[in-house]
Write a structure and sequence with these properties.
The protein is an alpha/beta fold. Helices cover 34% and strands 27% of the residues. The structure holds flavin-adenine dinucleotide.
Amino acid sequence: MDVTIIGGGLAGLIAGLELTRAGLTVTLIERKTYPFHKVCGEYVSNEVRPYLESLGLPLTGMGATRIDRFQFTAPSGRSLETALDLGGFGISRFRLDHALYELGKREGITFLLNRQAERCTFSGDSFSVTLNTGEVIRSRLVIGAFGKRSKLDKQLDRRFMRRPSPYIGVKYHIRPAENRPEFRADTVALHNFQDGYCGLSSIEDGNYCLCYLTTRAQLRRFGSVPELEKAVLQRNPYLKAIYGHSELLYEKPEVINEVSFAPKQAVEDHILMAGDSAGLITPLCGNGMAMAIRGGWLAADLASGFLKGRLTRAELERRYRSAWSDQFDGRLRVGRITQRLFGDEWLSGAAVSLFGAVPPLLRGVIRRTHGEPFNDWRTPAKDLISG
Ligand SMILES: Cc1cc2nc3c(=O)[nH]c(=O)nc-3n(C[C@H](O)[C@H](O)[C@H](O)COP(=O)(O)OP(=O)(O)OC[C@H]3O[C@@H](n4cnc5c(N)ncnc54)[C@H](O)[C@@H]3O)c2cc1C
């Protein structure tokens, strides 16, 4: 076996597809079974749309919505809107990841579903990955695409795991009542509330994704998700109207804990980390999925250079670290700084006034958290890296 990929979200699925298309043998281990829901705002930047379509995903036919406006509201109900230069589309992870899985299966990725990687060790120039079933998978290379937080982070003793993170994420799909002005298919909205913010964007079949980030302390204070939503989120009049005029499509929300935005390493113990395993951008940027897709492509492209004998392992790791940092460090930094404007009643109100008075400033911030359109996929990654 050439490559084991741990985690079948966007980063893992893209890396798997690229590697099989390069003629390499790939096993992908995923803890769950497709299709499944995921905590994610489901607004995808157009940065990666041409690339996804080039893989064979008919996004429009799959029901993706077109989004080219942004709305930002403060807890007081003050609101600001702007056009998005690059824009994006809305589609559920349930549908997007499933379509990539089906494509990967057809193209020859060996999927091990419903299995969890518990240990990964490197010795004698190859890897052994031990699963919860007791199986051991051996390969020349491992790509770690296991998302924000995993058992493996603990086993690898990664630095960000030593500091607990206060953030939690909550997500639902909702169906709006007809003709409500709070729901506009062409607009991705960020509604602020005390100690958090909530994204709303259209997805397939006339539904919307409602997804928010807040702190564990808030949830503890109010005891339950519905109580927290009533007491805190719905103080923002936009959120009150959204909850009041929609039907929740899940019995209970998807919730994740310990969402950490701390810097991570792109290579750990010879494993190439891709997507959130290498670093998570703050969700308000609406950009994590585009980064996971580009990161998966980058890892696969350099990995294939190593597996075909064009790069040594040391060169592979050095180039991957440097390419990852060239492409993503800047966005992560701006995302962390911008997040401070959110979740504070006074600051988010001031941000509405400031950005309202100087519209180019808001567009500048949006541009700096987004990458350039991803047009490089036909160029080998090694040609994109200086060092
Ligand atoms: C609240 C919130 C809102 C967001 N909103 C947006 C948005 O609107 N737009 C956007 O672009 N980004 C958004 N993001 C970010 C985006 O969701 C992530 O950046 C993206 O999902 C990263 O993809 P990934 O493939 O790295 O990880 P994931 O999609 O998380 O995939 C990781 C996979 O690994 C599997 N796994 C984990 N551990 C193991 C193991 N040990 N063995 C086997 N499998 C394992 C998991 O089951 C999972 O399927 C948001 C994030 C949060 C927290």
